[in-house]
């Protein structure tokens, strides 16, 4: 017998506007940032995403991945409303690191299931550190869809100046139109809990050469350089990681 520990997190209720979208409102400044939450302006979905960042001991990567896969199978076996979207290891950037992206509307954790507790205890011995963030998806980004491999992914993470999230969304709602041709845009989020004013853009490419060619093509598009010029002053810090899907990742 096991007990479910339920922890439900909900975003601000979505209000349907049949006359105009949030982006048009931002352009004409009808909504003041002090009157509406950033979450409501920038995301139109009730779904919460969880980004787990695990820094793995250098000598324990295979054991760690086997442990994590068993945990996924246990969760799936209990049919919880907790879905793995993607699972990656870092190939370039912060090495010995694994990233796991989950989605849910109401998270249920097997807090006292003996098998789940044993896996977590074993996993703790394989890690150097870990970090957890709750995220919302930007409404102007394409819907997240699983990819068939082989692919590589790039996660570009930005730490923004406090108070600039609305301006960031305003610019990227235009900028994303320059990056749609090659189906490279996988996902984009902003943080709700954890490190705040964090943005993560995830791109999908066949390989590093495809990444190079796609990014160069964007710079040749009139207007892309202007969008970049407007967003750069909003950034305090940024970094990029090249990711490889794990064998059990739903998206390859």
TrEMBL record:
GO terms for biological process: mitophagy. It holds the Pfam family NIPSNAP. It comes from the Eukaryota. One of its GO terms (cellular component) is mitochondrion. Gene3D superfamilies: 3.30.70.100. SUPFAM superfamilies: Dimeric alpha+beta barrel. Residues 49-104, 153-250 form the NIPSNAP domain. PANTHER family: NIPSNAP-RELATED, PROTEIN NIPSNAP. Belongs to the NipSnap family. This is NIPSNAP domain-containing protein. It comes from Diploptera punctata (Pacific beetle cockroach).
